[in-house]
User: What shape does this take?
Amino acid sequence: MRLYKSLALALILIAPIAGVPAIAQTVTAEAAMAATDRPPQHTERDAARKPEMAFLLPYIKAGDTVLDMGAGGGYTSMLMSTAVGDTGKVYVQNPASWVENYKMQPALDYLTSKRANVTVVVAPFEDIPAPAKPYDVIFAGMIYHDTFNDPKADVAKMNAALFKAIKPGGYFIITDHKAPDGSGLRDTNTTHRIDQQTVIDGVTKAGFKLVLDSDALSHPEDDRSLNVFDAKIRGKTDRMALVFQKP
Assistant: This one.
């Protein structure tokens, strides 16, 4: 039985975005969110996450091989699983410490029990194994700042490994909470934000080209000073939405 028999997929032709080639036959956020096997802890987050998913999913098409970095319990992974379809593959990565400390295993077990096109990877960010087929898309959703918070981590090594593991023309997409301009890595483990230029500099140094700096997740009313988990600002932080491409 096909994985999405109960889901009427809304397929659309995406208009060209400045700096990015047109991407055809992708699944809308609404269609992906309509899958009936999604658990309540996912669906209750849809309203808050929809802008991010509407930004991401046009880059993912049927048959793609995708990596969801720092995927947590797989909220984005399940939506991407719908987008890549039966002929695609989603790798769902978390460091071992995250799986243990945040008790993620039941959620990951549920995900793999429902979606045959999902593979769970437990590995440090800089040691994510390359798939047999190079990635079409790599997504780091609100977690790129976290890659700097493990004192043993080597983010330059991570970026180089990701560049090697993605196909030419493939996309590395990053969303994250913006820190004040010029603050570098100062806030990654306090307010859980990161300076956008620091992200751009590190990723382009690995060989990627920045092709889109979008304001899709912008909240200019956020002065970027509060912890992203503060009730005053949670879900309404000023966020970067960056698309990099391997030449």
Notes: Confidence is low (pLDDT under 50) at residues 1-24. The domain at 11-245 is CATH 3.40.50.150 (Rossmann fold).
